[in-house]
Amino acid sequence: MDLLLLLTSALLCSCGPVNTESVFQIASVTLSIEPRAAVRRNTNVTLRCQASVISLAQLNREYTLYKDNSVIYNKNTSSKEDFLYHLPEARVSNNGRYKCMVRIMGQEMTSKSEKLTVTGMSPPILHADKSRTTEGEGVTVRCLAPGETGSFFFYFYDNSSEIHDEHRNTNQAEIKLPLSDIGAHMIHCIYKVFIMSESVTSDESNTVIVTVEELSIKPFLEISPVNNIYEGDNLTIKCSILGFNQSHKGMNLLLNQGTNLLSVGNATAAIEYNMMVEATAPTLSFDCRLTVKNLIKVDTKTIRVTELFSVPQLIMSPPEVFQMKPMTLICKSQHVALERVNKEDLTYSLDPAEHFLTPNGAGIFSGRALKNEFNYTCIAEAKGIRKRSGTLTINPKVPVSVPSIRVADWPILGESFRIFCQSSKGSGPITYSFWKGKTQMGTPIIKSFGQPAYISVVINDVKEINLFTCKANNGGEEEQQSAALDTAVIEPITNPILTVIPDPVEGNDLYLICSVQGTPPVTFRWFRHDKETPLKVTTSLSNNSNYQITGLSKEYSGMYYCEADNRANFKVQSDLVDVEVRMALWKKALIGGVLLLVASLLIMVSCVLYYKHRRGKRETAAELSVKPASPKSDESLTVNLTHDTEVYNAATDAVSFYDDKVGRVTNGTRGSVASLPADISNRSSYSIPATV
Ligand SMILES: *[C@@H]1O[C@H](CO)[C@@H](O)[C@H](O)[C@H]1NC(C)=O
Ligand SMILES: *[C@@H]1O[C@H](CO)[C@@H](O)[C@H](O)[C@H]1NC(C)=O
Ligand SMILES: *[C@@H]1O[C@H](CO)[C@@H](O)[C@H](O)[C@H]1NC(C)=O
Question: How many domains does the chain have?
């Protein structure tokens, strides 16, 4: 009451002088563990929290105790005494770090933390509800951790092997162990206490021996007959309980073949089961199963079964057949138990029944193949047992058609090219062979349907191309031969010749004709040898082409050549041709005329000058007459020289007579007659010079 008044007055007079009553400070907080931090189990441990507070008044204190940062206790007190927390008879579960916090009027302080370590755990105690039991019954065991606290894991061991674990928050665990094996079982347990993320493991418990005794009853399986069992035989199978007495309750019997349940029974009704054996496997295994509570006891027996006849096989002869060709199917069981079944009793049939095929002896069916794929199975049957063969798929082959022969690209003389051969029909594999005349080229090539065969060849003569043929065969009766290969062959270009017509004359047109040998189309190019770019490029379907120059002039003079190539892609070049452009005719004529004119002018001028120089001297023509006209050899000859009086009038001029052979023979005057000597009179002719 005093304190309340004091506080009230302190609050009311807060603006007044300092109230010393409300002044306080927490000086220190310490936690100590008594008697010490590390103790043995069962020690009475005390945690002491001591707070030293400076104040005048008695202030209310709030203590909070933490273990591993979790609050485990909280208390308000106005006492100045230390705060004590007891851990009577400490256990390992008390292990941890402790600290305490003190709060006074909003002010608080926490101690350093202290670690408590308790060592030692009580050994576990194991108890079993019985020491003898029968198989399937099991035993109830309890594992106890006396006086321990905390969170537990219990582990149970059978003959040192861990067989069970169990989590509990109490210090004991009770479980039921099945214990199936007959004989003694040494059982013990341990436990673990969990503190935070760690655990502490106890010692082993005492060992309890539990003996499991075999159950006196068991299942019994009986099969008859036991030996010489053939498929189709009848079997009697009994599944019963041996050593049964009324004390046993809740029993079940199951009869199985493999995983197939055949029949069910119980303690009072044993199973008797009859069946016809099927030879699904060479051995058949049966089991008789007795279930008592959790226990299952099994008796198993295996019998050997002999087939009456094996599963038939269906085969075709021949193994391959062409459409509509004869074929035979054979259905046969490889093994037949002749001691049990007669050959005549074993029958074979086709499924679908005799489809276009007729039976032709036991298990033999003959006929012609269909055009399409067809599936057959066959069935062998004897003594009511049927066995079916696997499916035989017959896929009749299609005969190969006449193959076509071709080349992929233009064959070039002297170069390798490929010849292809392919049949448009026919089941693969197809064998192709290539022929040149009567010679086979290389080895036969095997291709599947739709794939062409090919070879690479070289020919050096165009005519060889038509010698090639190919043959196709897919195992049928006849081989098919193609027609002869028919295709153009490209001859590479040879012999380029450049011809120039007509004579290159100024002003005229000129043709540069390039001609070659080889297969058109041909690409021609004309060049002037001093220039790199062609004058003209043209592709022609004939083996020659020309380049025309119109209006020749001197500048066109030069060396020319041409180039040519075709699809053989081999370029050739002609020789160089010299073109020299000559002057035009009219120019020559003009020049000639002018020269003539100049010459005649010169002559005239010189004549005039000559006459002027000779003054009286004249020039004249003389005329000679000879008598007789045909003189005899011994006659003398009279030669009379007459003058053209109009021209010749100089009386004193001398005349000379000349013989063509001997020269001048005599002199005379104008109009004179000369008598010539006989020895020269037989001359045939005389002459006088023009100028006398
Ligand atoms: C521990 O305290 C209990 C009473 O709380 C007392 O009976 C016991 O004897 C004490 N043990 C020891 C070892 O002092
Ligand atoms: C034949 O049987 C095969 C499977 O075995 C099947 O894929 C096929 O279609 C059958 N052919 C015919 C013609 O029935
Ligand atoms: C050009 O072809 C013709 C036939 O078209 C032939 O007569 C002539 O010889 C060929 N000339 C050359 C140079 O091959």
Answer: 8
DSSP annotation of 288: E
- At residue 584 the predicted structure's pLDDT band, cuts being 50, 70 and 90, is confident
Residues 68, 47 within the same domain: yes
Q: What is the pLDDT of residue 644?
A: 37
Task: Please report the atom of ligand 3 found closest to the CA of residue 517.
Answer: 14
Pocket test for ligand 1, best of 34, 45, 85, 89 (most atoms within 8 A of CB): 89
**Residues 113-130: tens digit of each pLDDT:** 999 988 888 899 999 999
Determine the atom of ligand 2 nearest the C-alpha atom of 375. 1
Domain at 149, CATH number: 2.60.40.10
Q: List the strands of the sheet with 510-517, edge to edge.
A: 494-501, 510-517, 544-549
Instruction: Say if residue 471 is in the same domain as residue 569.
Output: no
Residues 432 and 447 in one domain: yes
- Residue 486: inside a domain, yes or no? no
Is the CB of residue 545 below 6 angstroms from any atom belonging to ligand 3?
A: no
Q: Which structure tokens are listed for 451?
A: 């794939």
44 ligand 1 Cβ < 6 A: yes
Question: How many angstroms separate the alpha carbon of residue 44 from the centre of ligand 1?
Answer: 6
Give the domain CATH number at 264. 2.60.40.1930
Domain finish residue from 372, 394, 416? 394
Give dist(CA 668, CA 656) in Å, integer.
Answer: 6
Give the number of the ligand closest to the Cα of residue 355: 2
Considering the domain architecture, whether residues 34 and 113 belong to the same structural domain is answered as yes
For ligand 3, atom 7, name the residue with the nearest CA.
543
Q: What pLDDT digit, counting tens, does each position of 145-175 carry?
A: 988 888 899 999 998 899 999 999 999 999 9
Looking at ligand 3, which residue's alpha carbon is closest to its atom 3? 543
Query: Which ligand 3 atom is nearest residue 518's CA?
Result: 14
Q: Domain span at residue 544?
A: 494-582
Q: Which of 527, 525, 559, 520 is nearest to 542 (CA)?
A: 520
Q: State which of 275, 306, 337 marks the end of a domain.
A: 306
pLDDT tens digits, one per residue of 467-483:
999 999 998 778 899 99
Which two structure tokens, joined as six digits, stand for 556?
Answer: 């066109």
HSE, side-chain direction, 13 A CA sphere, residue 108: 9
Q: Whose CA is nearest to atom 14 of ligand 3?
A: 517
Ligand nearest to the Cα of 88, by number: 1
517 lines ligand 3 (CB under 6 A): yes
Say if CB 110 and CB 101 are below 8 A apart.
Answer: yes
Judge contact between 687 and 658, C-beta under 8 A: yes
Nearest CA owner, ligand 1 atom 10 = 44
d(CA 126, CA 20): 67
- Residue 646 CA: distances (Å) to CA of 342, 420, 643: 167, 109, 9
Q: Is the pLDDT of residue 55 over 60?
A: yes
89 lies in the same domain as 16: yes
- Residue 210 covered by a domain: no
